[in-house]
Inverse folding.
DNA sequence: CCGTGTTAGTGTCAACCATACACAAACAGG
DNA sequence: CCTGTTTGTGTATGGTTGACACTAACACGG
């Protein structure tokens, strides 16, 4: 069933930069392309916007379809609209980025493990289309947002230690942080609270466990 | 000549929030719609993305076509993609915002004066489509950016006094500023320089004129 | 059971930055 | 030459940020 217009229309997709932090490294989810163009190359998860769904809803749906992840923090990043982004037809991509916590790492069971993988940013392969550019911009936005909001907490599992949290901030934003100053800072923001439990691991003093006061909520600082 | 696709495609437009500052007020350029839908209502300037031009280029072109303004600061704002934004067909809008200096206020000679006008933000009429939402977001972005960059300078004519500049900052970001502190601050940023000329107007001490060191350049602060 | 190694947890002081604040200088006009 | 008006300038204070070192709690091995 063909669809006909009096003027040419572009196709519109969403592409999603899914970030997580694992083993002291910021990682991005990539999918190996199964068809042309760029067959076999790594690309961002994403897909075409359906005619009756909002662009936001498309991003949510694609994220779930390709990764099985639901209820994840998702924010629009930027729209990429160069006419030759895609060789098949004119495609405009609305890019989003998502942050998933350490614990929700299970990828969609349906997908072959070889076709979806977490890559450390900084060691990325050449990506399909202009997806390299998209990742670069997403990374810049994320590091900027780490400085003036509490997005960093979204990478954390339900409960965590302040040392874990400090480690996360250091790996994502690069910058090392002083232990005492970091703790003063994060506690003064009034966004985490003690769970009352301790995490005993290894031959040393056990650490207090914390949780977000309002899970999923992002606070803008200053 | 019809254009046919195997899947339905949305139309894509750009809409532009053009800001200026005039007589102590932040203003937005609005155009009265000449055809349905929302005929006669006020709306943002903008139009459909052509199939062979980039989305950025479309914004530049529309800005020039509808206002005659060229070489203006223009930045992508956000993409609005709700399925029922437009009653005619599915339309996704990539919104931009632009800042024009006081001196370049001449609107396109072709346009009837009654059909294009500067409106003070805060006193806007009900706008067509979701353009009200777009303006709100643009305003938020602008005030935020005033705090951590030198975008404010883009509203200034080629030469200006520091008092003028302070007045501009006060009207755009609301917040009043201390005269001495403002001058210390702006001078420490190293973005303006004295022209050597003075502006004598009225029965009082003439003010030193300044200009941007690198016109059109926006510096990120801190 | 005691010593060792390892991470958790805590306060103070100095440097820097942001803010508040008042008066002389330069001009036009009467 | 007096008045009214806007320009232009420095200092002191309070708050914020950043540097810095030792004790607490535990597991393990001897």
């Amino acid at each position: 069933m063909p669809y006909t217009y009096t003027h040419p229309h572009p196709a519109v997709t969403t592409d999603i930069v899914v970030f997580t932090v694992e083993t002291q490294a910021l990682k991005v989810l990539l999918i190996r392309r199964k068809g042309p163009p760029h067959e076999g190359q790594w690309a961002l998860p994403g897909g075409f916007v359906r005619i009756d769904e909002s662009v936001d809803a498309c991003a949510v749906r694609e994220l779930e379809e390709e990764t099985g992840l639901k209820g994840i923090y998702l924010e629009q990043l930027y729209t990429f609209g160069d006419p030759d982004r895609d060789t098949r037809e004119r495609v405009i991509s609305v890019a989003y980025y998502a942050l998933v916590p350490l614990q929700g790492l299970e990828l969609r069971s349906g997908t072959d493990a070889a076709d979806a993988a977490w890559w450390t940013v900084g060691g990325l392969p050449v990506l399909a289309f202009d997806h390299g550019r998209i990742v670069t911009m997403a990374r810049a936005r994320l590091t900027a947002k780490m400085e003036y909001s509490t997005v960093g907490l979204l990478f954390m599992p339900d409960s965590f230690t302040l040392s874990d949290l400090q480690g996360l901030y250091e790996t994502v934003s690069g910058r090392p942080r002083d232990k005492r100053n970091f703790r003063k800072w994060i506690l003064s923001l009034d966004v985490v609270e003690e769970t009352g439990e301790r995490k005993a691991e290894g031959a040393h003093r056990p650490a207090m466990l914390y949780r977000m006061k309002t899970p999923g909520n992002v606070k803008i600082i200053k």
